[in-house]
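Here is the promised in-class demo. Please do not try to memorize the tokens; focus on the logic of going from shape to residues.
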């Protein structure tokens, strides 16, 4: 739902950042940039004699990216990347012993560097370690109709079974089978925990990601639902699996895909919806933007203006027209919205109204976003007959807990489904991490990948079916 689709943008910004200096500046330096509210730690190994700085980005698993040409004059440092239209300017401050600088790539971001003895590391204490006390098998699943091969991992408890099986379906954006986000591998953590507890798990790379084939950029939620359906059909052919207890655990958009599969398959054993949508997506996206901007410090007046204007903007995008026919009305609506904001609130969105429009247009006219925005999960939830466990974190600012759980509950009631457990878990964010600030920037700094209480809830729900 939103923040996770920014990962490619993070990489573009990060790959383009460097620092260098005179011989006295040789060594390891570290700093951070803020992109989309996420703080990204960068390490630089400076070697003036070789006229290069090797950059590493631990959270993105990028190592020793070599710098471009640099200019050093006294304590001043300038680095440019013409291919990224980017420039880094910094001056060494002798008093604080750090480079004070700015990274400019159409938008200026502060980047200050301090000496360090070792590269940055991010502690992820829940990361499973081999050897695993269960069977691990690499599998491939054919979505014949789409011409897509999905690569995945099946983990099965040792023994004869039969075991219940959970299919993990990821949220929006390019997600691998571990649903890795900012160094957190939530699906690996969930898979490891459940398999140790006697539940088989099948997780897979999204189409067009890692070892799976297909074009992710041209795919929609409906396409990803056909992938999940193909995995479900494949799971029914597996040995040692209780065919009546094959279900889907879907996170975020995956929590909307799960009932789409259930609506087509009355033999789906269960659904676990983690931060899954219940309200129409245009409403969800309006709420999401307001909550994120509130955490960013937007004024009450600015938040009200945002809540009033975004539905109009989304209604334009939702029209059944080619994007070119919608550019002019969208520009008018976006500029009108921007002009109503105070200068301080405007800066939270973008430096100018034109840059804000461009950032919107690049995302809202993708096939995925237009299909997603026009979606309403109500129909598929109303057709869901299997047992459901719907969990949302109280501090989730991407999929607001109360409105979405209420909508899921109401729509399941329409279907006559009385086998649902719906809970809001106090203190958890969209990734089911215990949070303090509970904004998107905290995702990377929180060490917990996935709350253990929620893991217990999922296990108990499946084993008690």
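The designed amino acids, position by position:
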């Amino acid at each position: 739902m939103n923040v996770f689709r920014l990962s490619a943008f993070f990489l573009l910004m990060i790959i383009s950042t460097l620092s260098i200096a005179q011989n006295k500046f040789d060594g390891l330096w570290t700093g951070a940039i803020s992109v989309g509210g996420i703080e990204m730690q960068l390490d630089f190994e400076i070697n003036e004699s070789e006229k290069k700085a090797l950059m590493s980005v631990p959270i993105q698993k990028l190592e020793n990216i070599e710098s471009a040409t640099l200019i050093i004059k006294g304590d001043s440092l300038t680095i440019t990347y013409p291919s990224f239209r980017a420039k880094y300017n910094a001056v060494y401050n002798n008093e604080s012993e750090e480079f004070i600088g700015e990274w400019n790539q159409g938008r200026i971001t502060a980047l200050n560097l301090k000496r360090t003895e070792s590269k940055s590391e991010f502690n992820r204490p829940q990361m499973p370690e081999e050897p695993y006390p269960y069977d691990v098998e690499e599998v491939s699943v054919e979505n014949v109709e789409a011409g897509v091969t999905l690569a995945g991992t099946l983990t099965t408890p040792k023994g004869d079974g039969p075991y219940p099986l959970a299919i993990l379906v990821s949220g929006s954006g390019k997600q691998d089978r571990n649903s890795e986000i900012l160094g957190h591998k939530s699906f690996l953590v969930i898979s490891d925990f459940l398999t140790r507890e006697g539940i088989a798990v099948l997780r897979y790379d999204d189409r067009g990601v890692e070892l799976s084939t297909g074009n992710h950029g041209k795919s929609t939620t409906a396409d990803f639902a056909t992938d999940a359906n193909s995995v479900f059909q494949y799971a029914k052919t597996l040995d040692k699996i209780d065919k009546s207890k094959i279900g889907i655990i879907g996170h975020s958009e995956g929590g909307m895909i799960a009932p789409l599969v259930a609506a087509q398959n009355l033999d789906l054993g269960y659904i676990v919806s983690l931060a899954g949508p219940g309200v129409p997506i245009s409403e969800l996206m309006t709420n999401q933007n307001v909550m994120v901007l509130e955490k960013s410090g937007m004024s009450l007046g600015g938040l009200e203006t945002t809540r009033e204007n975004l539905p109009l903007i989304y209604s334009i995008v939702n029209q059944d027209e080619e994007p070119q026919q919608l550019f002019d009305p969208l520009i008018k609506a976006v500029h009108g919205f921007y002009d109503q904001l105070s200068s301080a609130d405007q800066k939270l969105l973008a430096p100018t109204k034109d840059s804000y429009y461009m950032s919107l247009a690049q995302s809202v006219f993708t096939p995925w976003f237009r299909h997603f925005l026009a979606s309403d999960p109500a129909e598929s939830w109303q057709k869901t007959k299997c047992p459901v466990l719907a969990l949302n974190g109280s501090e989730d600012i991407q999929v607001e807990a109360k409105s979405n759980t209420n909508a899921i509950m109401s729509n399941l009631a329409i279907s006559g489904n009385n086998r649902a457990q719906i809970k809001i878990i106090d203190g958890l964010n969209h990734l089911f991490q215990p949070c303090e600030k509970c904004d998107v920037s905290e995702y990377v700094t929180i060490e917990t990948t996935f709350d253990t209480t929620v893991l217990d809830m999922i296990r108990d729900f499946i084993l008690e079916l």
